[in-house]
Specification:
The protein is mostly beta strands. It is built from 2 helices and 34 strands. The chain has helices at residues 171-176, 431-438, and strands spanning 16-18, 28-29, 43-45, 48-49, 53-54, 67-70, 80-84, 90-93, 99-103, 118-123, 129-134, 139-145, 154-156, 180-187, 194-200, 205-213, 219-228, 233-234, 239-241, 253-259, 264-269, 273-278, 286-290, 298-300, 307-309, 324-331, 337-343, 348-353, 362-369, 386-389, 401-406, 413-414, 420-421, 423-430. The strands form 9 sheets. A 5-stranded mixed beta sheet has the order 2-23-22-21-20, with no helix packed on it. Strand 18 (233-234) and strand 19 (239-241) form a beta hairpin.
Length: 443
């Protein structure tokens, strides 16, 4: 999770300068939506949750982040959830939310280098492969899932000699940690080739990679191209605006998802909004929706780098509060469906029409609330990422499953020193319950 403004919640991002003082990237920015009465946000509760992981030495410095649902083609009830834990590596859970395996993050080359940090993961639909970004080592990690193995079903099949740095030139740059961050991957339905789009932490660059097969059965990758997203935006009043970031940082991206039906990439620029562009990173991106504080001017304290917002000029959107984080799809059987986006700043999720021809119109929002009763499951707060499968997954989830990161798992747990431990996990939401709560049909 990345914070806004004070790094606790930097929800305003703006520098108002004249249009002549900054070069603007060629982009398409959708007009701000008119103000409308704000309806009550639908709420849904979780049916299960994974064990809490803790970001401290006793917990292996594990911090839950990004889940991916791998559907077992032979027995959907034995499908798995692969979930990143950063320095803690990759955890594997069953549909009862029980941990069945853990895979350690790669070790650093030397004691002076950064360790592996598994940040985002995707399960490639229709394959036995999953791909993750190693944020600590600036590489991809490729996993294979064995549908027939009940014990340790996931293995690392990354080609060690064919896994180059994605953004860094050498280990010294890797240690600066402007490294591989967000991830979206897919299998091209025409060619069968598998691609990944990877964002860079701190910078606004995005890279397109293609997986490659090695003779020994391991899998590597090659870089095809990189692009940069805009850092400065022209406002309707003629001024320019740049999101507030720490010194040396650009407004970067993390959450992404590719729609394999039409080759569309949806990408979240955390303090800007939701973008749509070609998954092969050609053409110009279109800004579908903006964070609420888009265009708000600010003053930045040079001593603390904290930003104090000015008067809101009203150029932002209505549905996303920075940071824009995880993105997934609700894939309907008839080809329709929704793009689902984590609005981390207010712990809600926005749903947009999946069809770009209809402008990806906003449909509704929801939140995952705490259940009722003594042993009820808490809600999802500060969500980094989520994944949704809209197909039967055995008797537990006959209508599908949403797995949602909870950045602040409760009740609070204290360590031996009496201090609270920073815990996080993943909530399992029955897709039938989500459809009922939002009033939408997913069938």
């Amino acid at each position: 999770m990345r914070s806004s403004f004070s790094r606790a919640h930097k929800r305003y991002a703006a520098v108002a300068v004249t249009a002549a003082s900054a070069a603007l990237a060629a982009i398409v920015v959708a007009p701000a939506q008119a103000e409308t009465p704000v309806p009550a946000i639908p709420e849904v509760t979780a049916k299960a949750e994974t064990p809490t992981v803790f970001d401290d030495e006793a917990g292996g410095n594990s911090s839950a982040d990004d889940p991916a649902i791998w559907v077992n083609p032979e027995d959907s009830e034995r499908s798995l959830v692969l979930a990143t834990a950063k320095v803690g590596g990759l955890y594997v859970y069953d549909l009862a939310a029980r941990q069945v395996q853990s895979l350690a993050a790669p070790k650093p080359p030397s004691a002076d280098d950064e360790p592996g940090r598994i940040n985002n993961v995707d399960a490639i639909e229709g394959t036995d492969l999953a791909i993750a970004t190693d944020r600590g080592r600036d590489k991809l990690v490729i996993y294979r899932v064995d549908a027939n193995r009940r014990q340790n079903p996931v293995s690392d099949v990354t080609a060690k000699g064919a896994s180059p740095y994605i953004f860094s030139a050498d280990q010294a740059e890797v240690n600066e940690q402007a490294t591989a961050y967000g991830l979206a991957s897919w299998k091209d339905r025409r060619t069968g080739r598998i691609y990944a789009v990877v964002t860079q932490e701190i910078e606004n660059r995005v890279a397109l990679l293609e997986l490659t097969n090695s003779a020994d059965g391991t899998i590597g990758y090659r870089k095809i191209r990189t692009i940069q997203f805009p850092s400065t935006f022209k406002l309707p009043n003629g001024d320019s605006w740049t999101p507030c970031e720490d010194p040396g940082e650009q407004p970067y991206l993390e959450g992404m998802r590719v729609d394999p039906v039409n080759g569309t990439l949806y990408a979240g620029q955390e303090n800007v909004g939701l973008w749509r562009l070609n998954a092969d990173l050609t053409g110009e991106p279109t800004l579908i929706d903006k964070v609420k504080d888009f265009g708000v001017p600010y003053e930045q304290d040079p001593a603390t780098d904290e930003c104090t917002p000015g008067e809101d000029p009203g150029f932002g959107g209505d549905h996303l509060v920075a940071d824009v984080e995880g993105i997934t799809l609700i894939d309907q059987p008839n080809g329709g469906g929704y793009v689902v986006v984590s609005s981390q700043g207010d712990s809600t999720f926005a749903l947009y029409d999946r069809d770009p021809a209809k402008g990806n119109k906003f449909k509704t929002s929801f939140r995952v609330a705490a259940g009722k009763g003594d042993n009820a499951i808490d809600g999802a707060d500060g969500t980094d990422s989520l994944d949704i499968v809209n197909k039967p997954l055995g008797g537990r989830y006959p209508h599908g499953l949403a797995v949602i990161h909870d950045g602040l798992d409760t009740p609070e747990v204290t360590g031996p020193d009496g201090e609270p431990r920073e815990g996080s996990n993943f909530k399992y939401v029955d897709l039938r319950d989500l459809a009922t709560a939002t009033g939408l049909s997913f069938r």
